[in-house]
């Protein structure tokens, strides 16, 4: 159906026919009611499709269009008007405020733009103004008015834009740029005009930026969009990221005015566009990406990034027939420091450890924090095992010196397992797992060292898993036994003390000794439960013998470093002792020198607390560790135990006896008691007696025995060699 036409031409003062199109019914009704209140003849179109139908049926003097409408947009309606009713004026009433949308609407013939939510008075004034000017256009000034309006709107948009607005000639030189460039980049508009736009491009983006405008298929509806870095003037501010949108234009149709703020007139322009600062968005994206692949505490690659790099390194090694190494690093004593000094100090320690480790790396190596106090290290393109060995030694040496955390000086070591590609695994998971297995073998041998993975370790690992399972069940089934080895006065043969030693009555393997399962207990953190069982039983047994009349009988208990280093060590120990009403003065704890020297300050405080409660302190295996006279003099030490390796060296003319001589003499000088371990022969006993070593223990008096046999022995007033 052809649209209805009125014979009477529209002129200012007569009722104007207005089409209102919007996809929101409430806004549509509000806008139509407002216009009717001023006497306008209004037709309502709910959506762009309905608007096109009304345009085909009726003639309108003015159309108020929303740009964002489903299916048929405001731009589509404008195109329909341009074909069917080219004399109909258009006012855009929309929430769309982007530069490209407004610019496109103006190029399609819009006479004005009103942003939602609109002010009613402003909208009515705009409609009245447009209708008034439209009547002038119909009086042969139509084209001039549109040019003026378009220029005014462009000028307003350009001067108020939060973005840099620019124009370039066909060679890429600035022929206009607005004043926003000064606040964002520090350049005055006038100094940029005549300069090629690569003048402000970051060097890394010059090639990409200059080629962008030369690409095909750049049109007004398909502008060139790209992200580049632009240089700020001087070095006061960093390079910033911008999103560039550039449109081609016909220089002959570009209206320009001297009133526009900025530099240049726009003469000769071939492109115009905007540059929007997206630095904050890029920085946020970079930070999110960093979080996804890095550990925020140490700034090291995390597990995900390490695996990515390892996969790539394996691919390269396969292609080039090369070797690579994966190291699994686990810090020794970190948990104790973290629990004792707090997580804040633990975090500072991890950062300090990272700093030292990074100094040992080669270019191309990847150090990763795998989690907690575990690190992994990728060494690509190594020649042989020796390359990895040298790096491992450097890492161990780097962590050997103490760390200063506030007022605290702490020591940590590192256990390193090494897996070499392809011998120790051909896949990422195999290499990491086998390096981990090798690291646990270092832990089992005393920590603070390195080992290469070998196939035999897999067998050991399977046995270890079975043994760990059995050990957990042993604690549940009460399979642990406490044996006692007497400490005897060498002159009277009287039992003066008993050292509690644990045994495991394994249901299949028989009686197991500490060396068979204690390292595993420490590694799996079961040592605490195990020691608690041993101390409970020992307090019951020895406490009963003390009550039966052996009031001076001493109970010696050997404690692991993990127990002593725990923050609640003293509190936990004394709770157990008090629970059995065991006299603290009859308890002697045995610790090694290394435990003391690992954290002298903290351990010293704990030992003083115990000594103040009456507990005796003995240094076990004396002579095999630091052997510092300084700590012996400063700490409440009561007893030195001479290691059995020195006692075994007591033979005619053997130099080992000299060490025993020195230890006994030093103990006498410091007024300390001394116990010689591992005494097996008359010759050793006689020699120790001659030195004044009055307490001994060892196979000379028999091996450690169950409580029932000790009870029978204590029934006698004197301990006889044959009794043991």
UniProtKB/TrEMBL annotation:
Enzyme Commission numbers on file: 3.1.4.52
Residue ranges of every copy of the Response regulatory domain listed in the record: 17-131
Co-factor(s): Mg(2+)
Pfam families registered for this protein in UniProt: EAL, GGDEF, PAS, Response_reg
Keywords: c-di-GMP, Phosphoprotein
InterPro entries xref list: Biofilm_reg_signaling, CheY-like_superfamily, EAL_dom, EAL_sf, GGDEF_dom, Nucleotide_cyclase, PAS, PAS-like_dom_sf
UniProt keyword annotation of Phosphoprotein present: yes
GO biological process annotation, one example: phosphorelay signal transduction system
Residue numbers of 4-aspartylphosphate PTMs: 66
CDD domains tied to this protein: EAL (cd01948), GGDEF (cd01949), PAS (cd00130)
EAL domain residues: 464-718
Domain GGDEF: 322-455
Residue intervals of the PAS domain: 150-202
Reactions catalysed: 3',3'-c-di-GMP + H2O = 5'-phosphoguanylyl(3'->5')guanosine + H(+)
Example GO molecular function: cyclic-guanylate-specific phosphodiesterase activity
Main EC class the enzyme belongs to: hydrolase
NCBIfam families: GGDEF, sensory_box
Protein name: cyclic-guanylate-specific phosphodiesterase
Organism of this sequence: Marinobacter manganoxydans MnI7-9
